[in-house]
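README: folding subset

This subset contains proteins for which both the sequence and a predicted structure token string are available. Records are stored as plain text. Below is the entry for adenylate kinase (242 residues), shown exactly as it appears on disk.
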Amino acid sequence: MAASLEDVPSESLMSEVLRRLRCSSKPDKRLILIGPPGSGKGTQSPIIKDEYCLCHLATGDMLRAAVAAKTPLGIKAKESMNNGELVSDDLVVGIIDEAMKKTSCQKGFILDGFPRTVVQAEKLDEMLQKQGAKIDKVLNFAIDDAILEERITGRWIHPSSGRSYHTKFQPPKVPGVDDVTGEPLIQRKDDTAEVLKSRLDAFHRQTEPVINYYSTKGVVASLHAEKPPKEVTSEVKNVLSS
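--- output ---
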């Protein structure tokens, strides 16, 4: 952090003022992105985040941050992890609740990777209800399993920003390097055909019922996630402007 505003370059100040002005007119949105691995959530979420001035809440990242910051919930989560247990749904919802209080989440949030089960969706809704809020839209990245294998095995990620690339569909300008920072890209250890099959099985078994749960509330919008990213972005904008 700069010691005072005098030390902040004028361009940075102006761009932040303009960003805040643009964001002030945006409607609040609380979104959930649901889809199997490789369905394009990681490509679309930074675009949605910037367009609607939302914060991106990835539960894995938030858990790690809470543990590192030694927050009361982070300490509890670390105990569970150290004992080889799954972090409880209540604890994850508590960490989401905490994260939502940040200034960057004033206009709303994108939840990615949670809820994975109907029980988690119910707990999330309970927590939001206490705040007088609710989920506005669930974006269902619908795609055929067969298309996913080619997508997954060619996927490369920029770890710190979450930007994703694909050797065939969306290659970086320089192979193995992030377009924006020039830092190296990585391939996730679980981006293999074998791991994909077990993750898809889990998705169909646990997470598809979450789509049905939110469908009864009339907030699900199904996207044609097999389309090229730009076409999916257009679909997302149409859905979120209605």
